[in-house]
């Protein structure tokens, strides 16, 4: 925006400077025509007219220098606008690409969530109601994880190794007994890799 504003300011300044040059040029042309027509006969008026034409030529030269300087600044501003426009386009392209990838990832997550939700409903139907209620309660308390795998005598929920007495209690428990970690209170899922 700043570069575009600068370019537009330079354009206005250039237009004004060019108009000033045109006015001086027209006045010099009129004075030269008066001088050439022979309508002015007084030597004093002729001298004044010639002096004015000389002054106007100098003024025209000064104004043309101003026009050139403004044109150079405007060209520089236009190059900056073009460069920044390209950079904005490049950044916008990357934003569009990232937005597209994000939207695709959201769609994939939504599909996966729907699939997992259906699987959970099927599995939850086969779990006793009191166990499911306990699991949901623990999941809410424990940041979304209500059960954790017992792996090599370590609860994978809190990453704490079970004490020997706790381990002995888990070993002695029947396979269908719900056992919980003493540290994080999550339900422990026993497997062949539990280290029992």
How does this model look, in words?
With 196 residues, the protein is mostly helical. The chain has two domains: 2-106; 129-190, no CATH class. Helices cover 72% and strands 6% of the residues. It has four helices and three strands; from the N terminus they run αααββαβ. Strands 2-1-3 form a three-stranded mixed β-sheet. Helix 1 (2-37) packs antiparallel against helix 2 (43-126). It is rod-shaped. The two termini are 70 Å apart. The model has no long low-confidence stretch (mean pLDDT 88).
Which keywords apply here?
196 residues; mainly alpha; 2 domains; 3-stranded mixed sheet; 4 helices; rod-shaped
Blueprint (SSEs and pairs):
Elements: H1 2-37, H2 43-126, H3 129-141, E1 147-151, E2 154-155, H4 164-172, E3 187-190
Parallel strand pairs: 1-3
Antiparallel strand pairs: 1-2
Shape category? rod-shaped
What is the share of helical residues? over 70%
Mean pLDDT: 88
Number of DSSP strand runs: 3
Q: In terms of structural class, how would the helical and strand content be classed?
A: mainly alpha
Number of domains: 2
Flag low-confidence runs. Answer: none
Helix and strand sequence: HHHEEHE
β content, as a range? 5-15%
End-to-end separation: 70 Å
Summarize the structure.
Helix content is 72%, strand content 6%.
């Amino acid at each position: 925006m700043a570069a575009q504003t600068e370019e537009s300011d330079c354009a206005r300044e250039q237009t004004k400077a060019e108009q000033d040059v045109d006015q001086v040029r027209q006045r010099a042309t009129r004075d030269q025509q008066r001088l050439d027509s022979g309508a002015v006969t007084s030597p004093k008026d002729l001298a004044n007219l010639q002096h004015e034409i000389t002054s106007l030529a100098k003024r025209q030269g000064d104004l043309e220098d101003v026009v050139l300087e403004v044109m150079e600044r405007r060209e520089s501003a236009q190059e900056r606008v073009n460069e920044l426009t390209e950079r904005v386009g490049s950044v916008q392209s990357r934003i569009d690409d990232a937005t597209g990838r994000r939207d695709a990832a959201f769609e994939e997550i939504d599909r996966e969530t729907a699939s997992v939700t259906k699987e959970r409903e099927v599995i939850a139907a086969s779990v006793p109601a009191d166990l499911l209620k306990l699991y949901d309660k623990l999941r809410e308390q424990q940041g979304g994880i209500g059960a954790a795998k017992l792996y090599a005598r370590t609860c994978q929920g809190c990453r704490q190794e079970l004490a020997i007495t706790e381990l002995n209690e888990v070993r002695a428990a029947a396979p269908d007994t719900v056992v919980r970690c003493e540290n994080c209170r999550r339900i422990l899922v026993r497997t062949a890799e539990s280290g029992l």
